[in-house]
């Protein structure tokens, strides 16, 4: 039976009738062989998907374990040394584990394998390199030197302190790297450089006026004194190794290894006098009269000529009283004995003129060159001159 034309008004009978065969295109038919193909492909895709998911899950677990291991190494690198150096309760309070961990390969790529052309500077810790991450962010990588006198204690100290001091006036710590013997701290890059680049550059293209300098002084004053890693009721601590920038270390820390909040106050006082005078504290090495900026400031204070210390770039009669007040605060901060120095909270109150009657400062530390030159050196010269005999021979031609 062959049917042509449109198939309309079709019905199914409960009995009798005949089978109706309809011709369809081959593409519309699903054979058993095709069904096998579909099942096979589905099984393969499913298996591959499961394997990929299993691999990704394994990698995530491995990374998580590695991260936990690094965090443990950072927080408990040596349990015995950690207890000697840092109180355990303070270590628990400091959430170093919240710092992002960078892998070594990523940092090596960012710094062109720590190429010399990317080197920004070097210090007792090691070298600092400029880098650029894959997302375009510029960074500064502080890499601990394996031959450095400083070690993991100093690395821990900086990581702990800076991770707590996230402030708009401070360079931001982005993370750290602890892999094998590598110890690195990753900071945000400062394209405008630091304060000293503008303060001590004789050809500074953007002079800092007094209002800017005073804002900087106040801002730093609110950050200073917070870098203490002592026990709750501890006023001072001792360290076996003295590490810091010469010219800013207090005498008790530089000589005896004792540090406290008053050590920070001393450093702040040095910086304050540098900002006011535009002179670097350690720039007096070849000066026969003064050992440091502190010595010059002390002499001018005693001779009632403190105005002579003011940087000519900011010397304006309108601000003179405020600047002289800052000089007096600076001298109070750099007094030789820690007990004589004010606390940083009192310093901030003095700067804001909340404390009107300030005490007279006592002699600062590191101001003894003039005395040494006038006594020991002069006596040595006299004694040498008194025992030297000179014989002069005249040569005449014939």
From TrEMBL:
Residues that coordinate or bind ATP: 142
Spans traversing the lipid bilayer: 38-58
Keyword DNA repair (UniProt): no
Protein kinase domain boundaries: 114-356
Keyword entries, A-Z: ATP-binding, Kinase, Membrane, Nucleotide-binding, Serine/threonine-protein kinase, Transferase, Transmembrane, Transmembrane helix
GO cellular component: plasma membrane
UniProt GO MF annotations: ATP binding; protein serine/threonine kinase activity
Protein's UniProt keywords contain Cell membrane: no
InterPro entries tied to this protein: Kinase-like_dom_sf, Prot_kinase_dom, Protein_kinase_ATP_BS, S-locus_recpt_kinase_C, Ser-Thr/Tyr_kinase_cat_dom
Official protein name in the record: Protein kinase domain-containing protein
Organism: Castanea mollissima
